[in-house]
């Protein structure tokens, strides 16, 4: 085995908790953060995808977030779950990317290639995504965290760094607005 190739499970990393992996990373274990990322990358990408305009932006936001988490792991305060901390960093990266894109709008490339016939599920997903994009950022983040990602109100409040009541009211307002937007699409 070459020195640049990581062992299949160095030092039993897969058996360690997220907190133990983060501490090991801070302590200099060169494989601990890789295991932490491997463990959470799918969920973090799904979170980013729902919070980003394009798959490319989601991918870039996850990369930016993981670089930040890697660099600033020592600032983790251990007052929340590591997974919540990573999610918060991803959401912040998505917000940064949305702000950046708003300042530098791009024109999409028009290609005359017939699109394959998609199912009704895809159409529904696009309608819902469009409706979500019309919500204020705070409402969208709250409703995505609670309704799409399954976080409890308390977990979402910690993730978004707001009070539980704020999460509840943002979710209620978002659901009401979504109902109006989606009923307008059905008419």
Features:
0% strand, 2 domains, Rna Polymerase Sigma Factor, Chain: A, Arc Repressor Mutant, subunit A, 8 helices
Layout: helices, strands, pairs:
Layout (H helix, E strand, L loop, with lengths): L17 H9 L5 H19 L4 H17 L10 H22 L16 H14 L3 H12 L4 H8 L3 H23 L1
Care to describe what's here?
- With 187 residues, the chain is an all-alpha fold.
- The protein has two domains: 14-105, RNA polymerase sigma factor, region 2, helix turn helix motif (Rna Polymerase Sigma Factor, Chain: A); 120-187, Arc Repressor Mutant, subunit A (Orthogonal Bundle), CATH 1.10.10.10.
- Helix content is 66%, strand content 0%.
- The chain has eight helices and no strands.
- The protein has helices at residues 18-26, 32-50, 55-71, 82-103, 120-133, 137-148, 153-160, 164-186.
- The chain is globular, with a radius of gyration of 19 Å.
- The mean pLDDT is 84.
In N-to-C order, the SSE pattern is: HHHHHHHH
Distance between the termini: 63 Å
- As for the number of domains, it is 2
CATH class of the largest domain: Mainly Alpha
Low-confidence stretches: none
Helical fraction: 55-70%
The structural class is: mainly alpha
Name the CATH superfamily classification of the largest domain: RNA polymerase sigma factor, region 2, helix turn helix motif
